[in-house]
Design a protein that fits this description.
Length: 533
């Protein structure tokens, strides 16, 4: 753990990319193999299931520190981080430990599902053996809120320097459903049995937001397609393995049994990049239809009939077992079209239609019709581009429609977390319904720190009631909210739920009497719903 703590400190004290990469590369060269695997896992989001909840941690830490629980809880918003709060209030350790990161992670894994008394004793014992900085990291590993300021791409670059393995090769090897307690470092990063990971996807290529379309040059160099509002995924049919992976590297094949027929008709040795959508029979349904299926353990026949899954294919990454990612997009797209054309009609897959345009004005006009197709805008991809790893500016761009907006008033405020733990940043908003104010959404992003500080001062001066960490305030502050979608929701008092709400700006120029109404939201909902029947 000491070596891992030293790495954390080295990364925390610099913002320079070169220094972060150097620190990681040195760690990957020198650390024990099991610790290297765990570090790769932690930096790529593979954290073990939480064995202890935050309430238990606060209670046990207060007990160890000889403090009342309420006082420990009051310390949290002042420090801004629960793991750091606990590390600060605990008494000095009475023992020492030379255990490695792997030792501690396996102990945490073993606690999952154990009785509370056993878990409590194990955590108290760990705190009594770890130095303050090691305790802080240990607490972070328990809570799952682990951040080192390092992207997966940065970590892969450092790993490539330490091992001599090509970055793109490493990025592919790190994909999939491997777990750090069941794989060794050489298997993860070195030569592997080609059949051992037949279902493994490729790292996803990502687009950057477009700012000025005129800067792209000649329109003939670009291919345009709709930016669908679904779940990005890769369909893999290779060496007998049939798998659907989400962009978050989650294996979701079993959640979409209606894609099963593709197993019998896709040629072996192919990988397709696509958007998973709910399908009306000829076009995508709104994301809300697909959302009903997400997270469901069982799928009733009625839901499968109402929102059948369909893949809109963007790209062909592998064909006949050959990696095509270095080929130009125009070639990959032609092969994708030929592959799909050779398959029987009626299967739950089709090519994502291209957007025809001769000049940028024509594309801009087409983009404005995106919502009519349940799309978010258009994608622009250079015809000569390869399928790269991660986000590479210059070749792929996303040109989204402007979001929906509405003016609402703040009713409740709650303090944030992390560096914003001392500020009120999480707000509940309402619109008017006659003479009443109806809460309809929450938002916590979009403003500057200076604005949050100003609002925090106002909340302190104007609190009407406190409900634990939540403050009720007078309905005076008006905000313009932006959101990407709207859907009916019987779980909300307003009957409406927004998708990706955030604060666009604080309307200090507008009184609460001029905010929007619930009827405004209902009208927007009616406009965006698919026709029935």
């Amino acid at each position: 753990m000491k070596r891992f703590a030293a790495l954390f400190e080295a990364l925390d004290r610099t913002t320079r990319t070169t220094e972060k990469v150097a620190a990681l590369a040195a760690y990957f060269r020198d650390a024990p193999d099991p610790d290297r695997v765990w570090t790769i896992a932690l930096l790529s989001g593979r954290r073990p299931k939480r064995a202890v909840n935050t309430t238990e941690l606060r209670t046990w830490a207060a007990e160890a520190a000889g403090l009342p629980v309420w006082l420990a809880e009051e310390c949290h918003p002042i420090v801004g981080d629960l793991a750091e709060t606990i590390a600060l209030i605990l008494p000095a350790p009475r023992r020492t430990s030379d255990d490695t990161l792997d030792d501690w992670m396996r102990r945490l894994l073993a606690l999952t599902g154990q009785p509370m008394d056993l878990r409590r004793q194990a955590i108290l014992d760990a705190w009594d053996r770890l130095a303050p900085q090691d305790r802080f990291l240990f607490n972070k590993l328990i809570t799952g809120g682990f951040r080192m300021g390092v992207s997966q791409g940065l970590m892969t670059r450092a790993l490539a320097q330490a091992t001599g393995v090509d970055e793109a090769t490493l990025a592919h090897r790190l994909m999939g459903d491997w777990t750090p307690d069941r794989i060794d470092f050489d298997t993860l990063t070195g030569a592997q049995d080609p059949g051992a990971n037949a279902s493994k996807p490729y790292p996803f290529a990502l687009a950057s937001p477009l700012e000025r379309i005129e800067a792209l040059g000649a329109p003939a160099e670009w291919l345009a397609e709709w930016k669908w509002d679904g779940i990005r995924g890769q369909l893999v049919n290779r060496d007998g393995a049939f798998a659907l992976w989400s962009r978050g590297e989650e294996l979701v094949t079993d959640r979409f049994p209606d894609l099963g027929p593709l197993r019998d008709f896709l040629p072996p040795g192919c990988v397709i990049d696509a958007e998973l959508v709910a399908w009306s029979g000829s076009a995508p349904l709104p994301f809300a239809a697909l959302q009903k299926r997400i997270g469901r353990l069982s799928l009733p026949k009625k839901l499968l009939a109402e929102a059948p899954a369909h893949l809109l294919a963007y790209d062909l990454l592998e064909a006949d077992g050959e990696d095509l990612r270095d080929r130009p997009l125009s070639d990959r797209r032609a092969r994708l079209q030929a592959l799909l054309a050779a398959m029987p009609a009626g299967l739950p897959i089709s090519a994502s239609p291209l957007v025809a345009f001769d000049d940028w004005d024509a594309l801009a006009a087409a983009r404005l019709t995106a919502r009519d197709r349940n799309a978010e805008g258009v994608m622009l991809k250079r015809r000569a581009s390869g399928y790269f790893v991660g986000r590479k500016r210059g070749d792929w761009w996303k040109w989204k429609l402007d979001p929906y907006t509405i003016d609402a008033v703040m009713l409740y405020a709650q303090q944030g977390a992390g560096r914003r733990a001392t500020l009120f940043t999480d707000f509940t908003f309402a619109v008017r319904d006659g003479e009443d104010l109806v809460p309809f959404t929450k938002a916590y992003s979009g403003l500057t720190d200076a604005e949050f500080r100003q609002i925090t001062d106002w909340v302190h001066r104007n609190t009407l009631e406190r409900f634990g960490p939540v403050r009720r305030v007078p309905p005076d502050l008006v905000f313009e909210l932006a959101f990407e979608g709207i859907q009916a929701s019987p779980r909300h008092k307003s009957g409406i739920a927004l998708r990706f709400p955030r604060m666009l700006r604080w309307r200090q120029d507008k009184p609460a009497s001029e905010i929007d109404t619930l009827d405004t939201l209902r009208a927007l909902l009616a406009e965006t719903q698919p026709p029935r029947g």
